[in-house]
Amino acid sequence: MEDPNERLRRIRQEIDEIDEKLVYLIAKRIECGKEIVHLKKILNYPVEDGKREREIRDRIFKLCEKYNLDVEVVWDIIKTLIEYSKKIQREELKK
């Protein structure tokens, strides 16, 4: 039987690795947003796209159901990422 302290240490290490991956993926998502804003500028599209945000919301809700996650909590996280991305896109448009 594994020592509880060792198991706790291992699980915390796994969480640290997951956190690093999450931060990497957030950075990657922001980079995608920067590419998108340049295309939106060429196409003369606005930063905000309600239809796309609804598509994201619907997909996230389905994923939450699939993985048995609290939709409100996960959607709050995703909304924060969307708002952050839009903020960066607006800044990119000013350049």
TrEMBL record:
Pfam families: CM_2. Keywords: Isomerase. The keyword Isomerase applies. InterPro entries: Chorismate_II_sf, Chorismate_mutase-related, CM_dom_sf, CM_II_prokaryot. The keyword Isomerase applies. Residues 2-93 form the Chorismate mutase domain. GO terms for molecular function: chorismate mutase activity. GO terms for biological process: chorismate metabolic process; salicylic acid biosynthetic process. This is Chorismate mutase domain-containing protein. It comes from Methanothermococcus okinawensis.
